[in-house]
Amino acid sequence: AQSVTQLGSHVSVSEGALVLLRCNYSSSVPPYLFWYVQYPNQGLQLLLKYTSAATLVKGINGFEAEFKKSETSFHLTKPSAHMSDAAEYFCAVIPNTGNQFYFGTGTSLTVIP
Amino acid sequence: DGGITQSPKYLFRKEGQNVTLSCEQNLNHDAMYWYRQDPGQGLRLIYYSQIVNDFQKGDIAEGYSVSREKKESFPLTVTSAQKNPTAFYLCASSIGFSLDTQYFGPGTRLTVL
Questions:
Q1: What is the pLDDT tens value at each position of chain B, 113 positions in all?
Q2: Which long-range contacts (CB under 8 A, 24 or more apart) does B44-52 make?
Q3: Cβ pair B97:A99 closer than 8 A
Q4: Residue B98 forms contact with A (CB below 8 Å)
Q5: Are residues B43 and A103, on separate chains, in Cβ contact within 8 Å?
Q6: How are beta strands A107-112 and A10-14 bridged, if at all?
Q7: Within 10 A of A47 (CB to CB), how many other CB atoms are there?
């Protein structure tokens, strides 16, 4: 079964520091991969997605993610954290056999002033 | 503006009562989905619909029911058979089913008193 793992349910960074949120998937075939952001009591907003084109994907709000097949990873990064980045982040995958989204358990990002 | 609306934002229910959550989209999407979100568990799929008058059970369908009589509407009923209904419920839609980005509504928080 396809699964996605987000390492670290809580991550804290200082304002201006690098943001790194980790996501690994289990699949022998590269799937479609997504990162979503959720602010408190709101729905999920798409940050970026990988669909087997360029391995480095740029998204909204300065975020980007790199697909690494050898590591089965799709980590989310941002060079400089802003207070407004504080939110819950979800990695999701659609296997290439593809009929369902599988979501990670989420990573809560705290930005320290 | 196109989007997905969910109502109400907050809902309180007494034990033993059925309650219906509304989800409407004007994106002309064929596929719609219902997820349940609990702290630390990510999103879990309740039901999905690929097309009008058709829907399928997801991973946690017990105690829930849906209908899809119109393309733009996909209401979810939480029945008294659902043992632990207190959660945040998210509706989503996509252009087609599988391999398509899902777009989310703002969510409904259901609390059973």
A1: 669 999 999 999 898 899 999 999 999 999 999 999 998 778 999 999 999 999 999 999 999 999 999 999 999 999 988 889 999 999 999 988 766 889 999 999 999 98
A2: B45/A100, B45/A101, B46/B76, B46/B89, B47/B76, B48/A100, B48/B97, B49/B74, B50/B96, B50/B97
A3: yes
A4: yes
A5: yes
A6: parallel
A7: 23
